[in-house]
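Task: sequence design from structure.
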């Protein structure tokens, strides 16, 4: 079975929030990543067992026989769940940084690819692939030297674009005088 479109749409929403300029975007995107992991696992389990209990808890969804996340990935997503629970229930002031959020987004992609092989390479639109490449630069998988090159080029491009948009003052046409 192929990846349900709502899974891809949900990830696209997470990416849009992450790259938006809104306050607390990392916190919002991180919480949505956690929800997306759970939704992905439950959806995959339901595809193979129509009697699967969609109201089960996070652990049961991640360890469902049809999902069975690899141990290292499972440890990370359970850690994200614990962080999210702390953020929402124990400390309203708790949040995550850009780095932690980007890493969690890449792990969501790994969960999706685990459930539906090669989804990220065959089903994601180009804009999502590009956004994920940028997110990777800011994640624990990112190369700091490449991130610096990327940021420098983006700043130069932004500066060049702002220079082009500046209104130019008109000078009086001496021929019309």
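Answer:
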């Amino acid at each position: 079975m192929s990846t349900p479109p709502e899974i891809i749409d949900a990830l696209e929403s997470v990416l849009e929030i992450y790259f938006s300029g809104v306050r607390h975007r990392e916190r919002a995107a991180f919480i949505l990543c956690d929800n997306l992991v759970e939704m992905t696992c439950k959806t995959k389990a339901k595809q193979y067992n129509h009697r699967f209990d969609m109201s089960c808890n996070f652990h049961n969804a991640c360890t469902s026989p049809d999902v069975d996340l690899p141990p290292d990935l499972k440890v990370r997503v359970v850690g994200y769940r614990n962080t999210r629970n702390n953020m929402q229930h124990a400390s309203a002031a708790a949040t995550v940084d850009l780095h932690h959020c980007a890493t969690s987004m890449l792990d969501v992609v790994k969960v999706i690819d685990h459930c539906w092989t090669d989804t990220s390479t065959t089903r994601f639109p180009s804009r999502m692939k590009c956004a994920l490449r940028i997110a990777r630069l800011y994640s624990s998988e990112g190369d700091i030297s490449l991130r610096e090159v990327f940021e420098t080029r983006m700043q130069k491009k932004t500066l060049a674009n702002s220079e082009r948009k500046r209104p130019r003052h008109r000078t009086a046409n001496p021929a019309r005088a």
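The mean pLDDT is 90.
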